[in-house]
Design goal:
By secondary structure, the protein is α/β, with parallel strands linked by helices. It has three domains: 110 residues, Tetrapyrrole methylase, N-terminal domain (Cobalt-precorrin-4 Transmethylase, domain 1, 3-Layer(aba) Sandwich), CATH 3.40.1010.10; 105 residues, 2-Layer Sandwich (Methyltransferase, Cobalt-precorrin-4 Transmethylase, Domain 2); 46 residues. It contains eleven helices and ten strands. The strands form two sheets. Strands 3-2-4-1-5 form a five-stranded parallel β-sheet, sandwiched between helices. Strands 6-7-10-8-9 form a five-stranded mixed β-sheet, with helices on both faces. Helix 6 links the parallel strand 6 and strand 7. It is elongated and about 80 Å long. The termini are far apart.
Length: 281
C-alpha cells in the first residue's frame, strides 16, 4: 500500500484593502488548492467571490490554532494542498499564521510563500521616512504604563519604527510618543488601500493635533523616525525642538534635557545656545 506524498502549505498574501491588490499567482493558487484556511471565512469569501473562485474554506484563527493546526497538518500529510490566508496582507504578521507554519515545518511539510500585499511595507513606502533600516513592533500594550515602558525602551533605536494601532488608542499612543520621542517626524497611515486612505505627515505634535480634528475610525499604521545618530543632528534642529517643547509648557531645563538625551548632545552647550537663540529671536 503506497503512502501519499505530503501536500504543500501555501502562505498566500491577500489584499489589505482594495480587492484588486492581489497577484495573478495568488489567484491561481487559491483556485487550485484543496482547502483554504482563513482567519475569517466571511471576509475571505468576499475576496473569492470578487474573483469568481469557488473553493473549500475552513476557519483557522487565534482561538482554534492548536486544534485546527493539527487537523490541517493531518490533511497535508494525507496529500492535500492548503492555502493559508489572513484577514488582510501577508499571513504570519501579527496573526496566528506563524503557529501553523511552524507546525508544518516541524512535520517536514513544504511551505511555499506566495508574496503580495503587506501593510507594513506599503505604509513605509509612502511615509517619506528612511526605509534602509526599520523595525516592526506590532501593537503596543493596551495599558498606559506597560506601553510607556516599551516606548521608553525604543527611544534610542536609530532605525525607523513601525507600529499597528487601533482607533481607540491612537491619540493616547501619539501622546505617549511625544513624551519620549519628542518632536520626531512621523507618518500615520489611516485605512491603507481602502476608500478613505489618508497619510498624516509631520512632527508628532503636528500629527497629534491634526488627527484630533478628524473622524477617528479604521486601522492605523504609525511610522516613526529613529533617533538621529550622534553628531548627525544639526544644532539648529535641536534648538527648534527645544522651542517646540517649551511652547507646550515644558520649562527650558527639562526641554533641553530631553532633546540632548535623545540626540546625545551636550546639555550645557544646548542650554546656552537655546538662551542665545531666544535672545536673537
Amino acid at each position: 500500500m503506497s503512502t501519499a506524498a505530503p501536500g504543500t502549505l501555501f502562505v498566500v498574501a491577500t489584499p489589505i484593502g482594495n480587492l484588486e491588490d492581489i497577484t495573478l499567482r495568488a489567484l491561481r493558487i487559491l483556485k487550485e488548492v484543496d482547502l483554504i484556511a482563513a482567519e475569517d471565512t466571511r471576509r475571505t469569501r468576499i475576496l473569492l467571490n470578487a474573483h469568481d473562485i469557488s473553493a473549500s474554506l475552513t476557519s483557522y484563527h487565534d482561538y482554534n490554532k492548536k486544534s485546527q493546526g493539527k487537523k490541517l497538518v493531518a490533511k497535508l500529510l494525507a496529500g492535500q494542498s492548503v492555502a493559508l490566508v489572513s484577514d488582510a496582507g501577508t499571513p504570519g504578521i501579527s496573526d496566528p499564521g506563524y503557529f501553523l507554519i511552524n507546525l508544518a515545518i516541524q512535520t517536514q511539510i513544504a511551505v511555499v510563500p506566495v508574496p503580495g500585499a503587506s501593510a507594513i511595507i506599503t505604509a513605509l513606502s509612502a511615509s517619506g521616512l528612511p526605509s534602509d533600516r526599520f523595525s516592526f513592533q506590532g501593537f503596543l500594550p493596551k495599558k498606559a504604563n506597560p506601553r510607556k515602558k516599551v516606548i521608553r525602551h525604543l527611544k534610542d533605536k536609530e532605525e525607523t519604527l513601525i507600529f499597528y494601532e487601533s482607533p481607540h488608542r491612537i491619540l493616547d499612543v501619539l501622546h505617549d510618543m511625544m513624551e519620549f520621542f519628542n518632536e520626531r517626524k512621523v507618518a500615520v497611515v489611516k485605512e491603507i488601500s481602502k476608500m478613505h486612505e489618508h497619510v498624516f505627515r509631520g512632527t508628532l505634535t503636528d500629527v497629534f493635533s491634526e488627527i484630533q480634528q478628524t473622524k477617528i475610525a479604521g486601522e492605523y499604521i504609525l511610522i516613526v523616525e529613529g533617533r538621529g545618530k550622534q553628531g548627525s543632528v544639526h544644532i539648529n534642529d535641536a534648538l527648534h525642538e527645544v522651542h517646540l517643547l517649551m511652547q507646550r509648557g515644558i520649562n527650558r531645563k527639562d526641554a533641553v534635557k530631553r532633546i540632548a538625551s535623545t540626540y546625545r548632545l551636550s546639555k550645557r552647550e544646548l542650554y546656552e545656545k537655546s538662551i542665545d537663540h531666544a535672545s536673537a529671536t
